[in-house]
TrEMBL record:
It is found in: Membrane. CDD domains: FN3 (cd00063). Residues 33-131 form the Fibronectin type-III domain. Pfam families: fn3. Keywords: ATP-binding, Membrane, Nucleotide-binding, Receptor, Transmembrane, Transmembrane helix. InterPro entries: Ephrin_rcpt_TKs, FN3_dom, FN3_sf, Ig-like_fold. This is Fibronectin type-III domain-containing protein. GO terms for molecular function: ATP binding; transmembrane-ephrin receptor activity. The gene is 106076104. The keyword Transmembrane applies. The keyword Disulfide bond does not apply. It comes from Biomphalaria glabrata. GO terms for biological process: axon guidance. The lineage of its organism: Eukaryota, Metazoa, Spiralia, Lophotrochozoa, Mollusca. GO terms for cellular component: dendrite; plasma membrane. It is a single-pass membrane protein.
Length: 211
C-alpha cells in the first residue's frame, strides 16, 4: 500500500515556479515471517514457543502476531493470547497428550489485511508426551448432586506430576466429552444428568523440558 503526503513548501523552489508542491512518498507493506521458532518447554498438555522478530518490519512499527493451531480443540488456552500481541512467546495449555499439533505463527501489521497478500508465517510441529499411567480409577462417594472419583499412580511418579486430566462423557456420546483438570488424586463432578452412565478417562501430566 502506498501512502502519499503532499505539503506546500515554505519558500518557492525558483522565482518562476509559482506555487509549488513537494510530494513525499512513503511505502509500507506487511512484515516478513517470524524467525527462529523454538520449543522452550513442554509437558504432556502444554507447550511454550518463542521466536524472533521478522527481518523486515515493512517500514512500520505496529507489528503483532497471530497464532493458529491445527487440530487444537476449543478448550486450548493461549497466553498471552492467540492474536493481536507483540511479544515473541506464547504458551498453549490444555493440549491432549500423545498428539501431534502444527502451530503456525503469523506476523502482521496495519496494512496486512488490505495488502492483498497472505500474511507471512512460520510453523512448528509439536508432539505432546503421552500422559502417564493412572491405575484403579474408582468411585469414592456419591450423592444427589455430586459424584467423586479417585485414582492411584506409581509412587515413583508422584514428585513429577503437574496435574491430572479428567475426560468424561455419557456412555455412547463421546462427541460431548468434557475435559477438566485436578491437582489432587480425586475429582468431584457436580453437573451431570441423572439416570445416565458416564465414562471417565484419567491421565496425568508429567514435567518435561525440551532440549
Amino acid at each position: 500500500m502506498f501512502h502519499f503526503k503532499i505539503q506546500t513548501p515554505q519558500k518557492p523552489i525558483s522565482d518562476t515556479a509559482g506555487k509549488c508542491f513537494q510530494m513525499f512518498l512513503s511505502f509500507s507493506e506487511p512484515p516478513s515471517a517470524p524467525q527462529n521458532p523454538v520449543i522452550e518447554s513442554q509437558t504432556a498438555t502444554s507447550v511454550t514457543l518463542s521466536w524472533t522478530h521478522p527481518a523486515d518490519l515493512g517500514n512500520r512499527q505496529d507489528l503483532n502476531y497471530r497464532i493458529v493451531c491445527q487440530k487444537c480443540s476449543g478448550d486450548v488456552l493461549f497466553l498471552p493470547g492467540w492474536t493481536g500481541f507483540n511479544v515473541t512467546r506464547v504458551t498453549l495449555s490444555r493440549l491432549e497428550g500423545g498428539k501431534t499439533y502444527e502451530v503456525i505463527i503469523y506476523s502482521e501489521n496495519g496494512v496486512t489485511s488490505v495488502s492483498g497478500t497472505q500474511a507471512q508465517s512460520v510453523s512448528v510441529n509439536i508432539v505432546t508426551q503421552s500422559l502417564g499411567k493412572v491405575m484403579n480409577v474408582r468411585k469414592l462417594s456419591i450423592g444427589p448432586k455430586y459424584l467423586t472419583i479417585g485414582w492411584d499412580i506409581p509412587s515413583s511418579m508422584k514428585s513429577r506430576v503437574l496435574q491430572y486430566q479428567i475426560r468424561y462423557y455419557p456412555r455412547g456420546d463421546e462427541a460431548s466429552a468434557i475435559m477438566k483438570y485436578s491437582l489432587t488424586q480425586n475429582f468431584t463432578l457436580t453437573e451431570f444428568m441423572l439416570q445416565t452412565e458416564y465414562i471417565f478417562l484419567v491421565s496425568l501430566s508429567i514435567f518435561w523440558t525440551h532440549s
